[in-house]
Write a structure and sequence with these properties.
Distance between the termini: 38 Å
Number of domains: 2
Strand order of the largest sheet: 2-1-3-4
Order of helices and strands: HEHEHEHEHHHH
Shape: elongated
CATH class of the largest domain: Alpha Beta
Number of helices: 8
CATH topology of the largest domain: Rossmann fold
Radius of gyration: 19 Å
Helix content: 40-55%
Amino acid sequence: MKDLMMLIKSSPFAEVQSIIIYCKFQYETDLKSKYLSDNNIQAMVVATVAFGMGLDKSDVGAVIHYTLPESLEEYVQEIGRAGRDGRLSYYHLFFDDSTYFKPHSLTYSDGVDEYAVSRFLSEVFTNELDSHGKICSLVKKPASRKFDMKEEVLSAFYF
């Protein structure tokens, strides 16, 4: 995330009034938001695509994609959020091997990422010493929202 901080503090991003930072997954937005907040960075919106689509903010001066959009159309829609006030706007896309390979692998795994699976399994299989013989009960719909996984995918874990 140091790369994000360096970008935000550099010109022209440092002079921009509002910036939207797009991330693919909710946990990424949480991490980035906390990191920015801990470093006293204000006037940022860190969003997933779903949230960003409903954003109606006219003073956005820059859009940063921390993860690769799923399509060119999605990218164009998201960068179109900046510059609506008629001012010059800026865009940046972070891209590396993991940026490419993670979405590529998710295409074949129905959108389940390692972090979500890890959180789910940690909930079910706790490391508590007194957990032996205990029963874990999860309701699909709330669990689906909590772990950001489709109900059908969660069903694969139930036995």
